[in-house]
Amino acid sequence: MLIANYIPLILLVLVAIAVVGGIIFAAEFFGPKNPTREKLMPYESGSDPLSEPQASRFSVKFYMVAISFILFDLETVFVIPWAMSWRESAAMGHGFYSFAVMALFLAILTIGLVYEWSQGGLEWD
Amino acid sequence: MTMQLLSTLNTLAMLTPPQGAEFAAIVPGMIVTLVALAFILIDVFHRKGTPRDYLAYFSVIGLGVGAASSWYLWDGTLEAPTFFGMLYLDRFALFFSALACVSGALAILCSPAVLRSHRMDRGEYYLLVLFSVVGMIFMAASADLLSLFIAFEIMSIPIYVLAGFLREDSRSAEASMKYFVLGAFSAALMLYGIALIYGATGTTNLEMIAQNLYYLEGGEGQHAGFGLAMLGVLLIFSGFAFKVAAVPFHIWTPDVYTGSPTPVVGFMATAVKAIAFAGLLRVFVVAFPLDVLRGGFFGYGWIDIAFALAAFSMVLGNVVALLQNNVKRMLAYSSIAHAGYLLLGFTAANAHPRFFLHNDAILFYLVAYTFGTIGSFAVLSYFSRRGESVETFEDLGQLGIKYPMMGLVMGISIFSAAGIPPTAGFLGKFYIFRSAIDVGMQTDEFSFIGLAILGVLSSVAGVYYYLKVLIYMYMKPEKRAFRPLEHTGPKVAMVVCAVMTLYLGIFPARAIEITQESIIDFQGVSSAVQATLDLGQQALEARQAAE
Lengths: 125, 547
Fold this sequence. Notes:
The complex is a heterodimer of chains A (125) and B (547). In chain A, α3 packs antiparallel against α4 (95-118). Chain A is built from four helices and no strands. Chain A has a domain at 50-125. Chain A is mainly α and 125 residues long. Chain B has 547 residues and is mostly helical. Chain B has one domain (25-44, 51-546). Helices cover 75% and strands 1% of the residues of chain B. Chain B contains 22 helices and three strands. A three-stranded antiparallel beta sheet of chain B has the order 2-1-3. In chain B, α6 packs antiparallel against α11 (262-287). Chain B is globular, with a radius of gyration of 23 Å. Chains A and B meet through α3 and α4 of A and α1 and α2 of B.
């Protein structure tokens, strides 16, 4: 185990510390300061993180939106690399196979969408 | 450089379709998946206010087709893992996929009336059972820790939801929450174990893990990575021990069994336990066959862990069950005791490669246990009163006399669970204890015989609480009147369970042959075990030729 092997890692750690420290330092010394209540709150998607749970009840529909979002976000995460590599796979003669696999995946997701729609998950009220 | 080469190869592998024959490996899982997807589409067009019985029957038929597909694939198994080392197609996997399908189908048959009596007649229930079965099928077949873990989660998450399906019942919600929190924690431990194994060996494929561990252990003394692997083995074992409800990991069992809807309890007591044993066998036999990791008779390997867990589960399960006055709770502790017997069989059969064929006792026990347990839960879920199911012993008063059929089914199931002939449970226990004693005699190690004696003694203690059910059903006065939920589904399930329990107890030859074939066709094992399997294959062929 040679220390020399870890020099890039050590450099990375040092640079990371320097950059973060520098930004905090610069913001502290050069930034204008006119604090408001919202600015001083921890970032929590706009809701107050330090309140009684009963005081900040919000609709379960937010969860529906969030879950749908994750679902279709992941769909893009799958589809984009597939689209990028489809040409290679077509060049190897497996274009139809590749297409069929993705079509299957999208079909399954579509069934999920149909279900969500029928259960009223896409309606706000 | 090597990393780049590997990633290129990996990309090429992903772009290349598997061989045509390999697709057979996903046929049972695919059938159940398609049934589930079709189910969603049918349920979308379901007319509100009408019963969903036809959907239940549809899923039962789908699961039946899934089980039948294992039968058709029985003679077409493959030696090498399919889908780039992800899934096995062997009789062991097919056996468990059929068992999962049957268990799911029986649980679904019991469900419609129960759900309606709780005003929770929703299609999602059956859908979740179907998805859970899909996970089980892939878990029994997995040849890679990643596919195993994904299947494990596909199996578990629907069951967390099913446990809390009666959402207006606070106990059901409590059961779901407890099961989910503890289950997620144990899954995290297991995943940590998988990560450690990956860190030590650089692969997640079970056979390659075995190979790399062999190199790590040999050569220049013990490599530092080997210690990581040992910790990983321990963590993975604890993940499985949670699912089979073996003793230090059993805390969730009584509460979850009491709160969950009764048919779901039948499903998770049987199928989940069976599939967890399938995964346990697959992972530990294929990936960790090294003697250092295996241990045995207190060499502190996974055999010794299983040994300790078996002893504790048998004793604690049976002793605490004596004190229960809730039947579901009693059955929960009894299922812990059953996990102990199964672990006893596991310990004995895997103590040395030459005893590997004794694993057929575990498989037979699981089949016997599945029918017996679902039978008793089907009877419990059949009776209800204002949306409450039968729960305490007192609730059972006189039910056996008022409803002789139900009493008969309960009697058969209870006799099977207690291990009284001529039921399947008796033969299951007999084979497990016989294999332990056989191994003990051949190795001259008292440990296995001692454990078998402990098992027999604790199962004798178990007879007391099992027979208490029958005493209440026939001899005690009625405290509160329960009415049966008139429905054909549970009746069919009960008849199937009772008939199968008796059939397996009286004519076990065919079932034993199937379990032996499943064990002999177990793929991915080390060469020492393979030699045992070849001997078993020859013996089986000789016997079949003689008939």
